[in-house]
Design a protein that fits this description.
By secondary structure, this protein is an alpha+beta fold. The chain has one domain: 60s Ribosomal Protein L30, Chain: A. The protein is 16% helix and 43% strand. The chain contains six helices and 15 strands. The chain has an eight-stranded mixed beta sheet. It binds zinc ion. Zinc ion binds next to strand 13.
Length: 260
């Protein structure tokens, strides 16, 4: 569903590596490459985690070779391997796709009750300020269940993401304390980003995590939301923002947004 307000309010700016500068402003979402590029098998990026850390302290993504799911939390970068085991990412490792922000929430609330994942996201929706195009968020607390996935590292020649996802490992974390974090993007950014919610999880003991498929909250969660109207996309060589496979109206929407 195309929302005219979102189109006008989220400012997507693309830049090449030469123009890349650290974003110290809060409420700016910084993204390395696009989900469209990832879908086509562009699994090797040139951005190091040390560089990524200059753009934000909370976010998600993957690592070169699609080697697991990445979680950035409180300025620390973690990798959940194919079975959901979590380790720290070294600053010199690189990413083909990540989105981070300097997280400064303007909404904080507690979310109570045993909620399905859809119910939980409905509660979040209700707490996102009206007119917000995109937001970063984190949910801290105990979950009865987190169903998550991760993916095995790939070797060249790379297969498309849709084929790799067929090899994903799905695992369930039961009665687990931790943080679910990520972003909500409007529908029209499909191709640049994942539309809707994109959430990753890392346990409080930093031992388990992955890309969230489903959850059931166990009581009370602390929710923090950081609305944003600015998405800065750093495009690696050979990657274009305008994906020819995008639907015409989505393509037009991106063009209009870029034109301000
Ligand atoms: Zn993910």
């Amino acid at each position: 569903m195309l929302d005219e307000h979102w189109i006008r309010s989220l400012h997507v700016e693309s830049m090449r590596r030469a123009d890349l500068h650290a974003e110290h402003d809060p409420h700016v979402l910084f993204q390395a490459s696009t989900i469209g590029a990832l879908l086509e098998g562009a699994y090797d990026g040139d951005l190091s985690f040390a560089e990524l850390a200059e753009h934000g302290d909370l976010g998600l993504g993957t690592l070169n070779g699609l080697d697991g799911e990445m979680v950035a939390l409180d300025g620390e970068f973690f990798r959940a391997d194919v079975d959901g085991a979590v380790n720290r990412v070294a600053p010199g490792e690189r990413t083909p796709f990540a989105v981070v922000t300097r997280f400064e929430p303007s909404v904080e609330a507690s979310v109570e009750g045993r909620l399905s994942h859809a119910e939980l996201l409905g509660r979040v929706d209700a707490l996102v300020p009206a007119g917000t195009s995109s937001c970063a968020l984190r949910l801290d607390g105990r979950f009865e269940l987190v169903r998550a996935r991760s993916v095995p590292a790939q070797r060249q020649p790379y297969r498309p993401l849709t084929e790799v996802i067929a090899d994903q490992h799905v695992f369930e974390l039961e009665d687990v304390a931790g943080t679910m974090l990520g972003f909500r993007f409007p529908a029209w950014v499909e191709g640049i980003e994942v539309a809707g919610y994109h959430l990753h999880f890392v346990s409080e003991d930093r031992r388990r995590g992955g890309h969230v498929l489903d959850s059931r909250s166990g009581g009370e969660l602390r929710l923090a939301i950081d609305p944003s109207d600015d998405l800065h996309v750093e495009l690696p060589p050979r990657i274009e923002l305008a994906d020819p496979d995008l639907a015409a109206e989505t393509h037009a929407a991106i063009a209009r947004a870029e034109g301000g």
